Amino acid sequence: MVEHKKPTSAQAQEGTLQFETGSLTKEQLDGVLNTLPVDITFVDADDAVRYFNKPDKRIFMRPKAVLGRKVYNCHPQKSLHVVNKIVESFKNGEKNVAEFWITLNNRFVHIRFFAVRDPDGKYLGTMEVVQDLTDIKKLQGERRLLDWKQ
Question: Which domain holds residue 110?
Answer without folding.
Answer: 38-137
